[in-house]
Amino acid sequence: MILAGDIGGTKVELAIFDGHPSEVKPLVSKRFPSRDHKGLEEIVDKFQKEHPTCAIERASFGIAGPVKDGVCETTNLPWLVTEKKLSKTLGGIPARLVNDLEANAWGISVLKDDEIEEIHPGEAQDGNRALISAGTGLGIAGIFWNGKEHLPFASEGGHASFAAQTNLDIELYHHLNDKDKGTVSWERVLCGKALVDIYHFLVLRAGKESPRWLEQEMMEGDAAAAVSKAGQANKDDQCVEALEMFTRYYGAQAGNTALNFLALGGLYIGGGIAPKMLDQLRDRIFLDNYLNKGRLRPTVESIPVRVILNSKTALLGAAVHACRDDR
């Protein structure tokens, strides 16, 4: 049996699997709020005690942050996670950490056709693939084609410096730089919190106040979802504009990612945001900015773009990673 985990800044999902990499099937799973716990070991210990009869043989955890020598200092949580401590918590079995986007990329291999939505057909061919995923943060991973199979690898491309293209982008850049006194990365304009920041920037720029009903929705639930929903319903001008800017940035960085990895085998869009804004991703705003690569336009135009609909892809990928014999 395999223990797999999807470890994010908002939630931790653990599951026990029994199966082959080509068809991993969860036996039991549970979700935990990340910030309600001091560390991953505490959550793993709790989960293991809830399922004492499951004889776990190995474990893999997709985790949001760079993994080096079996250690990860999480990007959006105050945790230091190590393979050694996880292995000790699990009674000495092999335990591996893998970047969450790399885990997500491993999961692509077991997705069914109805769990992927193609938004740009391109010309499918053998070659590298790439994955971009906006959620709590912005993740990017490469998927190397070795002539026989696709092998995912991690990157921290989401933290590369944001490239402003218009005067409005430059205004936003200065706003974010003044607000946080730090580097304005692509993640600062492409994640759930970023959509809210863009909205507030536009409200300030327009010299307006947020509608009370919207402020109430943002306080009571997911603020980014409230902005997105209002924008999609055309209920607030600044929400509409914020969603358009977010979509434009997603298209531009998706095209950058396709070029960075020369992803002739396909570009995949993961994360929790993409399935909720499929109409925007199918729209010309996204595609025009994806294709806007000058002399390299024919290259990105040839690359298929597909949205991952299965929210558990990273969890499945961690299980696939654990199953591999060549680890």
How would you sum up this structure in a few lines?
The protein has helices at residues 40-50, 83-89, 100-107, 167-180, 192-206, 212-220, 223-232, 237-260, 278-282, 284-291, 297-301, 313-323, and strands at residues 2-7, 11-17, 26-33, 58-63, 67-68, 71-73, 80-82, 95-99, 116-120, 129-134, 138-145, 150-154, 266-270, 305-308. The chain is an alpha/beta fold.
What coarse outline follows from CA principal-axis ratios?
A: globular
Rounded to an integer, what's the Rg over CA atoms?
20 Å
Largest sheet: 6 strands, mixed
H/E element string? EEEHEEEEHEHEEEEHHHHHEHHHEH
Could you give the count of β-strands? Answer: 14
β-strand percent reads: 15-25%
Low-confidence stretches: none
Strand order of the largest sheet: 9-14-13-10-11-12
Helix segment tally: 12
**Fraction of residues in H or I helices:** 25-40%
Taking the alpha carbons of the first and last residues, their distance comes to 16 Å
What structural category do the secondary elements indicate?
alpha/beta
Average of pLDDT: 93
Task: Give descriptors for this structure.
alpha/beta, 327 residues, 12 helices, 6-stranded mixed β-sheet
What does this structure look like?
With 327 residues, the protein is α/β, with parallel strands linked by helices. Helix content is 39%, strand content 22%. It contains twelve helices and 14 strands. A six-stranded mixed β-sheet has the order 9-14-13-10-11-12, with helices on both faces. Strands 3-2-1-4-8 form a five-stranded mixed β-sheet, with helices on both faces. A three-stranded antiparallel β-sheet has the order 5-6-7. The two termini are 16 Å apart. The mean pLDDT is 93.
